[in-house]
Amino acid sequence: MRNREHLDAVIKAYDVRGVVGKDIDEDFVRDTAAAYAAILRSEGESTLAIGHDMRPSSPALAQAFAEGATSQGIDVILLGLTSTDELYYASGDLGCAGAMFTASHNPARYNGIKLCRAGARPVGQETGLSEIKDMLVNGVPEYSGKPGTISEKNVLDGYAAFLNSLVDLSDIRPLVVAADAANGMGGLTAPAVFAGLPVDLRPLYFELDGTFPNHEANPLDPKNLVDLQKFVVEQGADIGLGFDGDADRCFVVDEKGHPVSPSAICALVAERYLDKFPGATIIHNLITSKSVPELIEEKGGTPVRTRVGHSFIKAEMAKHKAAFGGEHSAHYYFQEFWNADSGMLAALHVLAALGKYEGTLSEMMAQYMRYEDSGEINSTVKDQKATVQAVLDGMADKIESVDHLDGVTVELKGTDAWFNVRASNTEPLLRLNVEAKTKEEVQQIVDEVLSIIRA
C-alpha cells in the first residue's frame, strides 16, 4: 500500500518520473511493474520488453522492474542500453508491451519510466497510469501462477536497419554531419544508424555518461545547443544534430551554427509525407508555428491540431490514421513507426532532403520559416488558473479570439500574431509561447504578457 499524495507527485500525465532514492527506488519500481503486469495479464498480454538509458541508476531499476513483472507471470525481454525510440521499435517489431527507464532531459539525480503497450501504443493517465496508481494505493492483486521468464535481446541493429528502410539516403550527396549526443543514448544509436551511409559523422559528447559532465541533455534550452553550434562551424559541417538524453528528440542546427525551428522541421517532414501520401492527415500541436498547418493545406493535406504531449499526439495519430505528427519540442511521430516518436527518423528525413538539395541547409529551410517566435518561456506562479485569467483580463482589448484546447491560445486583433499560456503538468509553472511576423512584434507581446504573469 502506498501513499496517494506521493504517487500523484511521481506518476505524471504520461510517464513516471522523480528523484532516485527520494521519489523512486527499486521497491517502488518493483511494485509499479507488478501493477502494470497485472493489467497486461488481464488484457491477455504475456510479454514485456524493458530498455534503459545510461543513467547510473537505470540498470538496477530496470532489473527491479523485471522482477516485479515476472512475479505476475509476464515474460520479460531485457534490451539493455537503448534509446526510447529503440524501445518503441522493439515494442512494435516484437509485438509486446514496453518499459523504458529514463528521465529524458532531466538531471542525473532523476529517473523514470515510459510505458507502452504492444505496438508502441502509449500509456498515459487515461490509458493505464491511473489504474496503476489505484493498485499501488489499494494493493496489487495476488498472483499464484507460474512466474514469468527473463531473457535478453539486442535490437540495435534491427532498429538501425528498420529506420534506414523508411528513408533512402543511398544516393544523396556526401554530407558532413556534426552530432551532439550530450553523453546520452544518441552516442550509441547514431553510429549504428549512420553506418554505411554517405555521411561523415563528426561526434561530440558521444561517451555514454548519465552524470552529463558536459551539459544538460536538454536541447530545448538554448544554452545546451551552444557547444553544437560552435562545433558545426569548426567542423565545416553541413548540418548539426542535437539529441536529448534518451535520444527520442532531435534538434537541428544549420551550417552557420543557427538553430532551426522544430516547427520548420515539422513543415519539411510533413511536405515529404504529403509527397509520398497525397492528401494525408498531419498532426501538429497547438504550439507549432502557423506555417505548419498553412503548408499542409497548401500541399493538399489535412492538418489536425492537438494538445501538447506525446500521449495526446499518438492518440490523434491513431484516430485520424495520420501519416506524420510534430511538436514544437522536437518530438516527431510517424505512422510507419507505430505512431511513435523518433528524433533519429526525423533526422534521416532532413538529411535525405538536404542531400538532394544543391544549396545549404539555411537556404533550404528558409521557405519553411515564415514567422518569428519566442520559444517557450517559463514563469513560476502561485496560482496558475488565476494568473491565466489575469492575462486574459489584461489583454482583453487586443484579443480577437481565445481557444481553450490546452491552456489558452489567444489570436490578437489585426495581426497574424498569437500567444499560448498553459500550465505545466508537473511544476508550478506557466509556459508562454508567442509567434508573430517580426522579432520586434514577438518581443513586444512577450514583454506585455510577462508583465502580467510576473506582476
Features:
Alpha-D-Glucose-1,6-Bisphosphate, Chain A, domain 3, single chain, 15 helices, 4 domains, alpha/beta, about 450 residues, globular, seven-stranded mixed sheet, about 25% strand, six-stranded antiparallel sheet, magnesium
Write the layout of secondary structure elements.
Layout (H helix, E strand, L loop, with lengths): L3 H7 L5 E4 L6 H17 L4 E6 L5 H13 L4 E7 L2 H11 L2 E5 L8 E8 L3 E2 L6 H10 L11 E3 L3 H11 L8 E6 L5 H9 L4 E6 L21 H10 L3 E5 L6 E4 L5 E2 L1 H15 L4 E5 L5 H8 L3 E5 L3 H11 L3 E3 L5 E3 L5 E2 L1 H13 L5 H5 L6 E2 L3 E4 L3 H11 L4 E5 L4 E5 L5 E6 L5 E8 L2 H15 L2
Helix pairs in contact: 2-3, 2-5, 6-7, 9-10, 9-12
Keywords: Isomerase, Magnesium, Metal-binding, Phosphoprotein
Family: Belongs to the phosphohexose mutase family.
Cofactor: Mg(2+)
Task: Give a nutshell description of this structure.
The protein folds into four domains: 152 residues, Alpha-D-Glucose-1,6-Bisphosphate, Chain A, domain 3, CATH 3.40.120.10; 85 residues, 3-Layer(aba) Sandwich (Alpha-D-Glucose-1,6-Bisphosphate, Chain A, domain 3); 107 residues, Alpha-D-Glucose-1,6-Bisphosphate, Chain A, domain 3 (3-Layer(aba) Sandwich); 81 residues, TATA-Binding Protein (2-Layer Sandwich).
